[in-house]
């Protein structure tokens, strides 16, 4: 179990190193997840111990939001000053996400093929 936790962190570290060394505009942890996915695709399956580590991390995911919550409370005055810009960014990004998702779904949907047909 410790091996797979170390593997997850090693993939994240490799992603960070690739991001910095190649100057990629993608976050290091995302690159690390892609590296982990590639490794799992090569292996052909997800080891049970890795699945257990992943489940444990997901079960405790809320703990990772504590530092973000503390940061929000620390800068609540600044957030209040910028409430209009933050609100506009949230609404705008939500609308763009919905539109892009709809376009992708439309592009990937096969015409005349419903879920019940095989």
From TrEMBL:
| Membrane topology listed for this record | Multi-pass membrane protein
TM regions (residue ranges): 24-44, 56-78, 84-109
Q: Please tell me where this protein is predominantly located.
A: membrane
* GO CC term, one of those recorded: plasma membrane
Q: Does the keyword Cell membrane apply?
A: yes
Q: Which UniProt keywords apply?
A: Cell membrane, Membrane, Transmembrane, Transmembrane helix
One matching Pfam family: LrgA
Record protein name field: CidA/LrgA family protein
């Amino acid at each position: 179990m410790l091996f797979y936790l170390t593997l997850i962190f090693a993939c994240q570290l490799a992603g960070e190193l690739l991001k910095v060394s190649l100057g990629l505009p993608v976050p290091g942890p995302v690159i690390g997840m892609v590296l982990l996915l590639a490794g799992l695709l090569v292996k052909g399956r997800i080891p049970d111990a890795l699945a257990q580590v992943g489940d444990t991390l997901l079960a405790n995911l809320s703990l990772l939001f504590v530092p973000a919550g503390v940061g929000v409370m620390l800068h609540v005055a600044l957030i209040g000053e910028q409430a209009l810009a933050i609100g506009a960014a949230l609404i705008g990004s939500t609308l763009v996400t919905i539109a892009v998702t709809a376009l992708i779904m439309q592009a990937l949907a096969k015409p005349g093929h419903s879920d019940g047909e095989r």
